[in-house]
Amino acid sequence: MRIRIDGTYAELAYTLNKIRTVLPVGSISPIRPRLKRPYTWRVFINTAPNRDVSRWIA
């Protein structure tokens, strides 16, 4: 799943920290400024599948 987050630099840092505790994160794009909005940044997060997924064998 790909998640896009827009906000100030402090909001992005806080949100990334919280998301990392809940979801397994595969990769985080570089934090880039939004050109038309001052003090606003954008980042994309790609979540990875769970590492400890066990399947039931019937």
From TrEMBL:
Source superkingdom: Bacteria
Protein name: Uncharacterized protein
